[in-house]
Design a protein that fits this description.
This protein has about 160 residues and is an alpha+beta fold. The chain has one domain. It is built from six helices and four strands, in the order H-E-E-E-H-H-H-E-H-H. Strand 1 (about 35-40) and strand 2 form a beta hairpin. Helix 1 (about 5-30) crosses helix 3 (about 95-110) and helix 3 (about 95-110) packs parallel to helix 5 (about 140-150).
Length: about 160
Amino acid sequence: MDITKFESFGQICTKELPNEIDKILHAANGKSVCALGFITTDDFYGCYLSWDYTKKIEEYFNWENGLEPEFLYQPLVDIVEDCKEIDFCNPSDEKWEFAKAVLCVLDKSIKQIPDGIFQKNGFQREDILFFSTMGDGDYIEEMLDASVKLFNTPKTLETYGIK
């Protein structure tokens, strides 16, 4: 997968993500943990943010909280439409490589969120469990497993009981 296709998506995520995380954590108001998911469709047509103030990420599909920021939608759609060689409707090595590239972009953007965003809202970075997956589709479990390990510290995984 040509990772250079993701450069503009990565730049806008790095720029805009701190503001969205700030909004979510500000709304937490006294909570001690927050799980935050980047949920995409099976064909990667955009992504939305979902969160919950529990440790039960396996129930992310029932969460009522969600944001659909434009920076997670159109830039990702543009990349998908440029990847005509990938059949996004069926599982394949190429589709999984695309998923891993998306996870790498999100990981880099998450890691660049300033610590001050967490602290001003009463959290430490390690209190927040970040993950990504599909709302439905071919790689739900694979993306969830890979992203949890990629996005989070061992301390965060321990807090959420993830091995």
